[in-house]
Amino acid sequence: MLEPWIKLTIGTTLLGLEAQSVIALRLSQIALGQGTPAEAQLMMTEKMLAFMDAATTIATGGSAEALVEVYRRRVQANARRLQTA
Description:
85 residues, mainly alpha, 0% strand, single chain
Protein backbone atom coordinates (compact mmCIF):
# COMPACT_ATOMS: atom_id res chain seq x y z
CA MET A 1 0.00 0.00 0.00
CA LEU A 2 2.83 2.42 0.78
CA GLU A 3 5.14 1.23 -2.01
CA PRO A 4 3.78 3.57 -4.72
CA TRP A 5 4.10 6.55 -2.39
CA ILE A 6 7.61 5.60 -1.39
CA LYS A 7 8.64 5.19 -5.05
CA LEU A 8 7.11 8.56 -5.91
CA THR A 9 8.82 10.22 -2.95
CA ILE A 10 12.21 8.78 -3.88
CA GLY A 11 11.72 9.72 -7.54
CA THR A 12 10.75 13.31 -6.78
CA THR A 13 13.60 13.68 -4.29
CA LEU A 14 16.11 12.44 -6.86
CA LEU A 15 14.56 14.72 -9.49
CA GLY A 16 15.01 17.70 -7.19
CA LEU A 17 18.66 16.84 -6.52
CA GLU A 18 19.40 16.22 -10.18
CA ALA A 19 17.67 19.45 -11.22
CA GLN A 20 19.76 21.39 -8.69
CA SER A 21 22.94 19.95 -10.18
CA VAL A 22 21.88 21.07 -13.67
CA ILE A 23 21.11 24.54 -12.31
CA ALA A 24 24.55 24.65 -10.68
CA LEU A 25 26.23 23.58 -13.94
CA ARG A 26 24.39 26.25 -15.90
CA LEU A 27 25.10 28.97 -13.34
CA SER A 28 28.79 28.08 -13.21
CA GLN A 29 28.99 28.26 -17.00
CA ILE A 30 27.33 31.68 -16.94
CA ALA A 31 29.64 32.88 -14.15
CA LEU A 32 32.68 31.74 -16.14
CA GLY A 33 31.42 33.51 -19.26
CA GLN A 34 30.77 30.23 -21.06
CA GLY A 35 26.99 30.58 -21.19
CA THR A 36 25.52 31.24 -24.61
CA PRO A 37 22.25 32.77 -25.77
CA ALA A 38 21.55 29.43 -27.48
CA GLU A 39 21.73 27.68 -24.09
CA ALA A 40 19.28 30.17 -22.59
CA GLN A 41 16.92 29.62 -25.53
CA LEU A 42 17.27 25.86 -25.14
CA MET A 43 16.39 26.12 -21.43
CA MET A 44 13.14 27.91 -22.21
CA THR A 45 12.23 25.61 -25.09
CA GLU A 46 12.89 22.53 -22.94
CA LYS A 47 10.65 23.86 -20.17
CA MET A 48 7.76 24.48 -22.55
CA LEU A 49 8.13 21.06 -24.17
CA ALA A 50 8.36 19.36 -20.78
CA PHE A 51 5.18 21.12 -19.65
CA MET A 52 3.33 19.99 -22.78
CA ASP A 53 4.54 16.42 -22.28
CA ALA A 54 3.46 16.51 -18.64
CA ALA A 55 0.02 17.85 -19.54
CA THR A 56 -0.38 15.16 -22.20
CA THR A 57 0.72 12.42 -19.81
CA ILE A 58 -1.76 13.51 -17.16
CA ALA A 59 -4.57 14.06 -19.68
CA THR A 60 -4.12 10.55 -21.06
CA GLY A 61 -4.23 8.96 -17.61
CA GLY A 62 -0.51 8.63 -16.96
CA SER A 63 0.71 8.24 -13.41
CA ALA A 64 2.68 10.76 -11.39
CA GLU A 65 5.48 8.21 -11.12
CA ALA A 66 5.72 7.94 -14.92
CA LEU A 67 5.78 11.72 -15.17
CA VAL A 68 8.64 11.99 -12.67
CA GLU A 69 10.63 9.38 -14.60
CA VAL A 70 10.21 11.33 -17.85
CA TYR A 71 11.42 14.51 -16.16
CA ARG A 72 14.35 12.67 -14.57
CA ARG A 73 15.49 11.33 -17.94
CA ARG A 74 15.40 14.85 -19.41
CA VAL A 75 17.29 16.34 -16.47
CA GLN A 76 19.91 13.60 -16.59
CA ALA A 77 20.37 14.18 -20.33
CA ASN A 78 20.89 17.89 -19.66
CA ALA A 79 23.47 17.12 -16.97
CA ARG A 80 25.41 14.85 -19.34
CA ARG A 81 25.29 17.46 -22.11
CA LEU A 82 26.42 20.29 -19.82
CA GLN A 83 29.25 18.25 -18.29
CA THR A 84 30.74 17.50 -21.70
CA ALA A 85 30.39 21.08 -22.94
